[in-house]
Specification:
195 residues, alpha/beta, Rossmann fold, seven-stranded mixed beta sheet, 6 helices
């Protein structure tokens, strides 16, 4: 009887552990800053600068920026300046590092393209990650929005999606496709912006 009870407790403990590990692996990893003095309702036109790429995937930042711009336009909350106009504005403003502009460069650029805000980003991880015999796709992305008149950061957020979960470790498999994970990360960041 005691042995049977001990086995049941072990099964319950193992179940709780597996659920906890799965929740940690699939959980939302986010950090967010929002300037409470900023009137976000006044932002009607946004320019999205090229993202910095710290990942191994050479074209990763361009792919993620494209998904983000499309999702931002689809949200209907703001007008997003076309990518070609952004490139032209970067050139005219003489921004040497478009993924890390100074406050003065943001002000000059925003005046040229007539934007109320400018968004920059850093792609930290993009692509396949490995752990032991398991592989899965993962993205880690940070964005920040700078207000056009001063170039000050008024919103910043980050998210990490994908990675190797408990089921990938136990059963193998490659996780979700990269595009699905990218879309989830972008939706998470937009949800944080519109909160």
């Amino acid at each position: 009887m005691l042995k049977k009870t001990f086995l049941q407790i072990r099964k319950i403990a193992l179940g709780v552990l597996l659920v906890s590990l799965a929740a940690c692996a699939a959980g939302r990893t986010t950090d967010k800053y929002r300037n409470e003095n900023m009137d976000f309702g006044s932002i009607q036109t946004v320019a999205v600068l090229p993202f910095s790429n710290l990942s191994k995937e050479q074209q990763g930042s361009d792919r993620v920026r494209d998904v983000f711009v499309t999702a931002l336009m689809a949200s209907g909350g703001v007008y997003v300046i076309p990518t070609g106009e952004v490139a032209k504005g970067i050139s005219q403003a003489g921004i040497a590092l478009p993924f890390a502009p100074s406050n003065d460069e943001v002000v000059k650029f925003a005046a040229l393209v007539k934007a109320n805000a400018v968004i920059t980003g850093v792609l930290r991880e993009y692509g396949e990650v490995r752990s032991c015999n398991s592989t899965a796709n993962m993205i880690s992305l940070s964005l920040q929005m700078m207000e056009a008149q001063t170039g000050q950061v008024v919103w910043s957020a980050s998210t990490t999606k994908g990675g190797i979960g408990i089921m990938d470790r136990l059963l193998g498999g490659g996780g979700d496709p990269m595009n699905n994970i990218t879309e989830r990360a972008v939706r998470d960041l937009l949800d944080q912006f519109y909160e």
